[in-house]
Automatic annotation (TrEMBL):
Entry superkingdom: Eukaryota
Family stated for the protein in its record: Belongs to the pantothenate synthetase family.
Pfam families linked: Pantoate_ligase
Keyword Nucleotide-binding (UniProt): yes
Keyword Nucleotide-binding: yes
GO molecular function ontology, one term from the record: ATP binding
UniProt-listed InterPro entries: Pantoate_ligase (IPR003721), Pantoate_ligase_C (IPR042176), Rossmann-like_a/b/a_fold (IPR014729)
Listed EC numbers: 6.3.2.1
Source organism of this protein record: Olea europaea subsp. europaea
GO biological process per UniProt: pantothenate biosynthetic process
Name the UniProt record assigns to this protein: Pantoate--beta-alanine ligase
Pathway stated in the Swiss-Prot or TrEMBL entry: Cofactor biosynthesis; (R)-pantothenate biosynthesis; (R)-pantothenate from (R)-pantoate and beta-alanine: step 1/1
Length: 240
């Protein structure tokens, strides 16, 4: 049987007010940050949050700060109504869905992405770097972001660290739960929390896989059968 609908919050100040009122009642809060298009891997993070805290907040926000203008922000999958139904199916449900429209200042650029921003003097920029009065404050975990995925996606981990910092400052959770599928990201968030003295416990959960062995992922869900087979072959070769 489905749980009751979670409280939907879109405003930053309202989200912060809710969290502070719950903490004043002695409640602990868990945060599960997502970009939506939820799958069983995300739902397992919520179950872990239930074990750790009284209340659980799931954020659903496609973060433009981790995309460069040449990447796939405009085609990233989204299904908010489907996500809500999935959240209601989790034993215990969730208490709040934080679904802000925008967490950045885009200056004079209304859509925040891709308007004359593909390159700036040869420097790769993100979808929210507009110059002038646009967003210009970023959080970086310098050494850990350099290798692996950071080599091919130079703005990605900077964008992740910045948006997670924003979510921590808005939701003010006691615990935050991330999947170890994105292992480099999880390590970066743990280091950021340590280095910046956030009073938040960061928990990493084990990888959830589909029956064919591929990690449950919003992007993997969009692969064709042929592409999934190619991905499996790549992983088999890497292990051999």
């Amino acid at each position: 049987m489905a749980n009751k609908d979670p409280l939907m919050i879109t405003d930053k100040d309202e989200m912060r007010k809710w969290s502070r009122s719950m903490r004043a009642q002695g409640k602990t809060i868990g945060l599960v940050p997502t970009m939506g298009y939820l799958h069983e891997g995300h739902l397992s993070l919520i179950q872990e949050s239930h074990k750790q805290t009284h209340l659980t907040v799931v954020s659903i926000y496609i973060n433009p700060g981790q995309f460069s203008p040449t990447e796939d922000l405009s085609t990233y999958p989204s299904d908010l109504l489907g996500d809500i139904q999935k959240l209601k199916s989790v034993p215990g449900g969730v208490d709040v869905v934080f679904n802000p429209k925008n967490l950045y200042d885009y200056g004079n650029n209304d859509n925040g992405c891709g308007v004359g921003l593909d390159q700036e003097g040869g420097k790769v920029v993100s979808c929210v770097e507009t110059g002038g009065m646009g967003h210009e404050t970023w959080v970086r975990v310098e050494r850990l972001e350099k290798d692996l995925c950071g080599k091919s996606r130079p703005v990605f981990f900077r964008g992740v660290a910045t948006i997670v910092t924003k979510l921590f400052n808005i939701v003010e959770p006691d615990v935050a739960v991330f999947g170890k599928k994105d292992y480099q990201q999880w390590r970066i968030i743990k280091r950021m929390v340590r280095d910046l003295d956030f009073g938040i416990k960061v928990i990493g959960t084990e990888l959830a896989r589909d029956d064919d062995g591929l990690a449950k992922s919003s992007r993997n869900a969009r692969l064709s059968p042929d592409d999934r087979q190619k991905q499996r072959m790549v992983k088999m070769i890497a292990k051999s």
